[in-house]
Automatic annotation (TrEMBL):
GO terms for biological process: protein lipoylation; regulation of DNA-templated transcription. It comes from Hominenteromicrobium mulieris. GO terms for cellular component: cytoplasm. This is Bifunctional ligase/repressor BirA. Belongs to the biotin--protein ligase family.
Length: 331
């Protein structure tokens, strides 16, 4: 571990307390001058550090740089997690897929402060500005068939909702199949990409990408998504909130992932369903239909009672729900 990483690790673990240069040097087995140089490098990287004579160093309360250390201190999982944090990337999914092909272990997690080419479903761009969101991907090597891989996405949606509830006390919902909504606005998108082993029908690996809007960007959301995009907080991003929510999502996901094949997530998915009871319009092939969502099946299919009275179950990717579904629940 680099000296500056070790110093940051000590400061993160002792937030609110001062550590003297002598303490840090002794615990790390380095000189006080090496500690001083590490502090300088951390400040250059954006960390706000207070230095008080005869007391030492402490992270300022407002210091809020997303780092391996800031996330790790909130993790609560017995799953081995190999964290990586970068300031800016093209796409965390793209980079982690390359690592998967090179043999990176399950539990590798890549978090970015921002993305220049964030990926959404159906080839859409996912807006990923710095400082107001968290964008991360998890590498999985699941023992399941390609058909069951949908459960990775649905499990992740549950993990995001439960993590937001745990950290903030708010009540997000899941818009089938992979979006998380809060106050009628989308605050999170989820995208799973996988490599299929065609010999046995299983997966070589899966990369689960999650993007969460913690706060509204200073310049607002782009015009094309302004009507549907939202954030967990209306004001500025609270200090450490990105680290806390990142860690909570990762921890909760891996807790559910242990029982991926058992559908253990499904009751929570149902209780968080945003569309249940709502009238929707959707496309199936070239045809357009209307109906009322009646629930979610055990296989995470969308259950709909069409205007004709027919009851249907639809799988992910089979239908395209039109915008404007966020109407009051049907009676």
């Amino acid at each position: 571990m680099r000296i500056q990483d070790a110093v940051l690790d000590a400061l993160e673990k002792n937030r609110g307390e001062y550590l003297s240069g002598e303490q840090l040097a002794s615990s790390l087995g380095v000189s006080r001058n090496a500690v001083w140089k590490a502090i300088q490098k951390l400040e250059e990287a954006g960390h706000k550090i207070r230095a008080v004579p005869k007391r030492g160093y402490t992270l300022a309360p407002e210091s809020d740089v997303l780092t391996v250390q800031s996330v790790s201190r909130f993790l609560d999982t017995d799953m081995p997690v190999y964290l990586q944090v970068q300031t800016e990337v093209t796409s965390t999914n793209t980079l982690l897929k390359a690592q998967a092909e090179q043999g990176a272990p399950e539990g590798t997690v890549l978090i970015a402060e921002s993305q220049t080419a964030g990926k959404g479903r159906l080839g859409r761009h996912f807006t990923s500005p710095p400082g107001t969101g968290i964008y991360f991907s998890l590498l999985l090597r699941p023992h399941c068939t390609a058909e069951k891989s949908l459960f990775i996405t649905t499990t992740a949606a549950v993990a995001v909702c439960e993590a937001i509830e745990q950290v903030t006390g708010l009540n997000p919902q899941i818009k089938w199949v992979n979006d998380v909504y809060l106050n009628e606005k989308k605050v999170c998108g989820i995208l799973t990409e996988a490599s299929v082993d065609f010999e046995n029908g299983g997966l070589n690996w899966a990369v689960l990408g999650i993007g969460i809007n913690i706060a509204v960007p200073e310049e607002g959301f782009p015009e094309e998504i302004r009507s549907i995009a939202g954030a967990i907080f209306d004001g500025p991003c609270p200090v450490e909130m990105r680290s806390r929510i990142s860690a909570a999502v990762i921890s909760r996901f891996f807790a559910l992932y242990k029982n991926l094949g058992s559908n253990a997530f499904i009751e929570s998915y149902r209780s968080h369903s945003f569309l249940t009871g709502r009238a929707i319009t959707f496309s199936l092939g070239e045809e357009t239909y209307r109906g009322v969502v009646t629930g979610i099946s055990d296989e995470a299919h969308l259950l709909v009672r069409l205007d004709s009275g027919e009851e249907r179950a639809f799988s992910a990717g089979e239908v395209q729900i039109h915008k404007g579904f966020a109407n009051p629940k049907a009676e």
